[in-house]
Design brief:
With 114 residues, the chain is of the alpha+beta class. Helix content is 16%, strand content 49%. β7 and β8 form a beta hairpin.
């Protein structure tokens, strides 16, 4: 019985970090992009998310600016964290955030082109 208790305790301690909220990471956005209906200026943003997937709620924060969106959490590791965007007319749309331990594929609503 004591062995079962020790095994169960060890298993619980090793599994707990899988459900914990990740520490915020920082990404650099090199030019203005749209996330939903919000334009993000170029700069460094802290990225955090809530949820365990596959859909999570992502928050990007820089100074007093804070923007949230839903994203699909994909877990391959990235050696080169950064962002990916697409062009829609003259507007750049933020599509993906690559972090060290995960990729966040943003679910942007339609953005009208200018």
């Amino acid at each position: 019985m004591k062995r079962v208790f020790i095994f169960a305790t060890a298993l619980a301690l090793t599994a707990a970090p899988l459900f914990a909220s990740p520490k915020p990471e920082t990404v650099h956005i090199s030019e203005p992009v749209m996330l939903g209906s919000t334009q993000l200026a170029a700069g460094d943003y802290k990225v955090s998310w809530a949820g365990t997937g596959p859909v999570v709620h992502v928050t990007l924060t820089s100074g007093k600016t804070s923007v949230s969106a839903d994203a699909k959490l994909v877990t391959p590791a990235n050696n080169d964290p950064g962002v990916m965007f697409t062009n829609q007319g003259s507007t750049k749309i933020l599509e993906e955030i690559d972090l060290r331990h995960a990729t966040l594929q943003l679910q942007n609503p339609e953005v009208a082109s200018n």
